[in-house]
Amino acid sequence: MQPGHVVGRYEGRRYSPTEEGEAEVDHSLTYLFGLSDGSLINGAEGGNATRHINHSCSPNCQAVEERDEDGEIHIVIRTLRRVKVGEELFIDYRLDVADADAADYQCRCGAARCRGTMAAP
Prior knowledge:
Blueprint: E1 6-10, E2 13-15, E3 32-34, E4 40-42, E5 54-55, E6 61-67, E7 73-79, E8 90-91
């Protein structure tokens, strides 16, 4: 795959900003994706294979918000560089952990520039 190739769209149940507190989440298997409009996509509910893309501090893909013709926001996974057939796909989760300790979200990706956390820098 060449850089910019669309791997897929992150799918799942959507929660509006007012419904966010209603999302029943098994925190041992969290597949939540927060959008810039305050809504959430829960990939654990009706999601697809993109929910299994793992984290790396040196990713080969990125998650990008794009709007469709109706103005709805979608998360599209695109390659950042050339990706070989069979190569594992990674994105940088850049978790928003608010006031929590970033050290509680340890990263063990093994990248040369691993920052030690999946939290946003």
